[in-house]
Amino acid sequence: MASPEPVERPAATCLTAARRPDDIIKIMLATDNHIGYLERDPVRGQDAMDTFEEILKLAVKYDVDFILLAGDLFHENRPSREVLFRTMALLREHTLSDKPVQVELLSNPDDGKADGFSFPAINYEDPNLNVGIPVFSIHGNHDDPQGAGHEGALCALDLLSVAGLINYIGKIDLASDQKDPNSDSGGIKVKPVLLQKGNTRLALYGMGNIKDQRMHYELRTNRVRIVKHGPQEYVPEGMFDDSINLVVWGHEHDCRIEPEEVPGKPYFITQPGSSVATSLSDGESIPKQVAFLEIQGKEFQMTPIPLRTVRPFVMEELILSEEAEEHGFSLTDKMEINKFLRSRRENVGEEDEEDDTAPPKEMLPLVRLKVDTTGVPEMSNPIRFGQEFQGRVANPKDLLVFTRQKKSAQKAVKIDKPELSIDDPDLSTQNKLARVRFAQLVEEYLGAQELQLLGENGMGDAIQMYVDKDDSTAIKEYVSA
C-alpha cells in the first residue's frame, strides 16, 4: 500500500491533522479467513464462515469504503460447492447495495479483466452491478491458482471475480523466462490499483503467494519491479522502497495487528493474522482481531477490532516432574497423574469467563494441554483422556499432547562386521532374511537398477499439489517433464 507519489514517513500511526471526512479512506482489513476449514466437523465446521460473516457485518457497521483481504480467503484450492455457495451468498448480502462508492478508481478498470469478455475487472465500475462495499483480495498459498492450458491457471477467487463479488488483485504471471536477469519480459511486475477520495490518493500493490524459492531468486536478481503509473510519478525498482507507507502481511497466523516500525526502513508492517485457528499452536491462541484502517493524505490510523465469533482457545504447558514435586504425587501412579491433569483441564480458561469481549459461552472452547513427560515411565492414552471431555471442549481428540526432552546424543561405538550380501551362496533364503541388513538389501537392489534422480524440491511440490490441491496429474507431469 503506497501513495502514488514518493512520500515521507508518517510521524505516527494516527491522524494528527484535523480530520476531514471527505478525504478519509476507510478500510476493513483482514487476512487468512480459511473459509472451509474442517467444514465436515460437527462442532467447528462453521467457525470460519461465521467469523467471515462477522467481518462483513463490521464493514457495514463502520461504513468502510472497501474491504481488503490479504490472502487465504479459502482453506482449500478447490473449495466445496457448499463453501462457495455460502461465501458468495454472504458477499452478495453484505457488499451489494445502492450505497454510493466514495473512492474513485484512477487506474485502468480493465487491468486484469477476464480475457475475451467486456466487463471490467473492478466490480463497482460495472454499470450492471450495484456494489456498495468493494472487496479487494489477493490469493494465498492455500487458494492459489492452479492449472494450465489456454485458459491459464485459475482459482476460486477467479470465480468470485467474474461473478462481480470481489476484485481479485495480485495475480502475477510467473510463466515468463527467468534465465535472463536483465530481460524486460521476465521477473515479477506489480501494477497498482490507484484510488482517490477527496484529496487522499492511495495505491494498492497486491502480490499473491509466490513460492519461497522463486521469490528469493527474483529478489536476489533484482527482478521485482513496481510498474510505473504516470510519466512523472513512479515507485523505484525493488520491493518495499521508500515510497511505501504500510505493508500488510498475510500467511502468518499470529495476530500482530498494531503497525510495527522496520529498522532502517521508512514504512510500517501490520500482520492481522488469521481469523480462525487452523492449528493448536501458541500463535493461534493470541486473541484474533481485524483492523479499521483510516487514511488521510500521508497519514494513517489503525484501530484493532476484537472478533467475537472466534472460538475461545486456551493453552497451558506443564512439566510433569515439577508438578509432581509441588503437588505431591508419584510419577509412577497413572491414576494420580490423570486426576491431576483433569483438575488442570477444569481450571484452564476460567479467567476469561468475565471478559466482555469473549465469545458466547455456548461455544465449546479449544483447549490444548502440552505436558512434558520426561522421567515418567508410562502415560495413559491421550485420546482416551480427551474422550472424557466430549461435549465440553471442541477438540477432545487432541486436547492432550505429550512431549519429552531430547536426550543428549551419545557417541556410538562402531564395531566392524563383515556385511552379508543377498547373493551369499552359503546362506539359505531363511538365513538371508534373518541376518542380512535391510540397508544392504536396499543398496544392492538400487545398484542393480537404472535409476534417475528426481529433484527434492520439485518432487515435494508435486506431492503437495497432489495432496493439498487434489491435482491428480501433478506427480505424473513432474516425473515426465
From TrEMBL:
Highest taxon of the lineage: Eukaryota
Gene3D superfamilies xref list: 3.60.21.10, Mre11, capping domain
An example Gene Ontology molecular-function term: single-stranded DNA endodeoxyribonuclease activity
BP GO terms, sorted: double-strand break repair via homologous recombination; double-strand break repair via nonhomologous end joining; meiotic DNA double-strand break formation; mitochondrial double-strand break repair via homologous recombination; mitotic G2 DNA damage checkpoint signaling; mitotic intra-S DNA damage checkpoint signaling; telomere maintenance
CDD domains the UniProt entry points to: MPP_Mre11_N
One cellular-component annotation, GO: Mre11 complex
Ranges where the Mre11 DNA-binding domain occurs: 300-466
Keyword NAD: no
Keywords: Hydrolase
Key word Hydrolase present: yes
Protein name per UniProt: Mre11 DNA-binding domain-containing protein
